[in-house]
Amino acid sequence: MNIKTLRIVFMGTPEFAVASLERMIREGFNVVAVITAPDRPAGRGKQIRQSDVKKFVLGLNQGIPILQPDNLKHPDFLGELTLLEPDLQVVVAFRMLPESVWGIPRLGTFNLHASLLPQYRGAAPINHAIINGETETGVTTFMIDEKIDTGNILLQQKTAIGEQESAGALHDRLKELGAGLVVETLSGLAGGSLRPQAQERFNPEGRILKSAPKIEKSSCRISWDQQGKQVSDLIRGLSPYPGAFTYLSQPEGEMLLCKIFTSEYEHSENPGPPGTAITDGKHFLKAAVDDGYIRILSLQQEGKRRMAVKDFLAGFSFSSGKYRFS
Predict the structure, then answer these.
(1) Do 130 and 245 belong to one domain?
(2) How far is CA 138 from CA 95, 122, 132, in A?
């Protein structure tokens, strides 16, 4: 099969998906349509906002059709999709598809997932891998089936997670790694060299599988009575979004909400009560944990911009031991 004549429909919405679509177009693949989320009001002004994928396609000015269905099962949308006569559909960071959609192409529909499946199935694999202290992750392409992230695997590529790497930094690396894997998968499927394999074959030792559900606000609050590495991993795994948060209790009783974006763990035998704030008032701010301290490097006070800890301390006067994180 001539890979350049393969009729491909691409489905995706956020920035993570743009890298794969851009690579496909740059490599000359025949993208006959793009499906993305409908325009939505967003932000304080509730202005109508287009998805990152839509903005990218419009910027190309190549006339690629853009479909934005509210209901993926609506007969009108299914009719439009069928008329496109796709040979293959590629999904990157979209939403769960009904069989009436993923079953249309003669070569099927495959998805790019930001983990080494079957580990970390779910909506937030990048965050959870770092929160759980993993040292390795990767990207996977797999054929979509009836369940979420359970289809037969096509290709995988591994990468190490840096000791201080944040979810944001890993996201940016994986979107590029994933873009390359999408192109490799397309070439393999078109050439007939790829054979999908059951996910069980990628977990031969029967390891316990960890999930990656959507991040809820309740799981973003820092528990200072944990060990330092756990706290540090939580901060990294939620940075820059949605952000790990805590409250700074002041002697007057006021509770100041803060998000912490970068930090370092320092081991100590006798750190004191968990959450105790330690500072020189100018250069450093630390919080006691079970086995040491978390040195806070950047944070954001509610209603203000993100700032380095020195800038935060310059506008905030308090003494060590009298303030506490909770």
Answers:
(1) no
(2) 20, 14, 15
For 127-150, how does the pLDDT look when each residue is reduced to its tens digit (9 = 90+)? 999 999 999 999 999 999 998 999
Range of the domain at 315: 217-325
Same-domain status, 136 and 246: no
70-98 residue pLDDT tens: 999 999 999 999 999 999 999 999 999 99
Non-local (6+) Cβ contacts of 276 within 8 A are 287, 288, 321, 324, 325
179 in the same domain as 43: yes
